[in-house]
Every structure is written in structure tokens, then in C-alpha cells.
UniProtKB/TrEMBL annotation:
<feature type="region of interest" description="Disordered">
    <location>
        <begin position="140"/>
        <end position="176"/>
    </location>
</feature>
<dbReference type="InterPro" id="IPR011006">
    <property type="entry name" value="CheY-like_superfamily"/>
</dbReference>
<keyword id="KW-0597">Phosphoprotein</keyword>
<feature type="domain" description="Response regulatory">
    <location>
        <begin position="7"/>
        <end position="126"/>
    </location>
</feature>
<dbReference type="GO" id="GO:0000160">
    <property type="term" value="P:phosphorelay signal transduction system"/>
</dbReference>
<protein>
    <recommendedName>
        <fullName>Response regulatory domain-containing protein</fullName>
    </recommendedName>
</protein>
<dbReference type="InterPro" id="IPR052048">
    <property type="entry name" value="ST_Response_Regulator"/>
</dbReference>
<feature type="modified residue" description="4-aspartylphosphate">
    <location>
        <position position="57"/>
    </location>
</feature>
<dbReference type="InterPro" id="IPR001789">
    <property type="entry name" value="Sig_transdc_resp-reg_receiver"/>
</dbReference>
<dbReference type="Pfam" id="PF00072">
    <property type="entry name" value="Response_reg"/>
</dbReference>
Length: 176
């Protein structure tokens, strides 16, 4: 993988966390790392530089991570609503993970951050990008990670029309 070609933006008000992430990214060959202390500064950087991946903290002073993601995904003047975003936080409760997911993050990374975790999230973003979905109240990567063969409810997306499902009564795969 050509990590050296990536332009990565780190958004965190904690300088020590940014330094740790920079060291991890440099160790795998990333050469272009940009830093911001909050979401407002990050948006400014994104308006002047084509960023490939964003790593943002959830809790920050000023414009926090959730507000930042919402601005990137939904603001009419967003510099890049499709940029892959990894949310990093020490608050990895199910509620916070769902908030980040519903804001439109691509991946979630719990602290303490490890090199393996950072590399894994970058690899997922590059090798397995998820399509983006737009509904009345959501814009971001498809939140479904995989097709659930036990799903018996109605499919809610046009591309699901050609999807098969498992009929639990007959235990047979049937087209939807």
C-alpha cells in the first residue's frame, strides 16, 4: 500500500495525541500530515488542501468531533463531504459509538490508540471502502457492514432489490 501518497489530517486538541499519531503514521511511510486543534481549524485546512483521510477526536474544545463530522458531511459549503473519517475517542460507550456512526464516520478507534489499530483502520478505508448513502436524515458511509442472512424485514434501498434473503420458515434462500 502506498501510504506515502496520502494526505492525512489529524484533528485533536491534545498535542500529545497528535504527536503519537504522527509518529505512527510516519513509521508506515505517511509523509503528508496536517494538524488542527478543533473542527473549525480542520475545515479551514480542508478548504486549502485536498485531504485523503481525517482522524478526529470526539471530545474537543471549540468545534468538537461530532459537530465537525456533521459539518463535513452535511454543510452546503463542505470542502469534501466524501472524505473518509476515523473517529478516535476514549469515550467508547455504545451510545458514543452510535452517535459517531450516525454522524457519518467511516471507522471508530478507541483509545488507547495502537499502531495496529491505526494501520487496520487505514487499510479498511483504502481496501474496503463503503458506498455512501443519502437519506432524509443521514449522509455518510453505508452503516451496514455485511448482509444479514437472518434479515426478514423489508429492504429499504433500491440496490437491495436484487439481494437474496433467507426465508426462516422454509430455511431456503429466496430473492427479495
Amino acid at each position: 500500500m502506498r501510504f506515502d501518497l496520502l494526505k492525512i489530517l489529524l484533528v485533536d486538541d491534545n498535542q500529545h495525541m497528535r504527536i503519537l499519531l504522527i509518529e505512527i503514521l510516519r513509521a508506515i511511510g505517511v509523509q503528508h500530515v496536517f494538524e488542527a486543534m478543533d473542527g473549525a481549524e480542520a475545515l479551514s485546512i480542508m478548504r486549502s488542501t485536498a485531504i485523503d483521510v481525517v482522524f478526529t477526536d470526539l471530545s474537543m474544545n471549540g468545534v468538537d468531533g461530532l459537530d465537525f463530522v456533521n459539518l463535513v458531511r452535511r454543510a452546503p459549503n463542505s470542502p469534501n463531504p466524501l472524505v473518509p473519517i476515523v473517529m478516535i475517542t476514549g469515550h467508547s460507550t455504545q451510545r458514543r459509538v452510535h452517535e459517531a456512526r450516525d454522524a457519518g464516520v467511516n471507522e471508530f478507534l478507541a483509545k488507547p490508540v495502537t499502531a495496529r489499530g491505526v494501520i487496520h483502520r487505514l487499510t479498511l478505508l483504502i481496501e474496503n471502502p463503503r458506498p455512501f448513502v443519502r437519506t432524509e436524515d443521514y449522509f455518510g458511509p453505508d452503516r451496514r457492514r455485511r448482509a444479514d442472512p437472518r434479515h426478514t424485514g423489508p429492504w429499504r434501498r433500491a440496490e437491495d432489490a436484487n439481494t437474496a434473503y433467507l426465508d426462516v420458515e422454509s430455511d431456503r434462500i429466496r430473492p427479495s
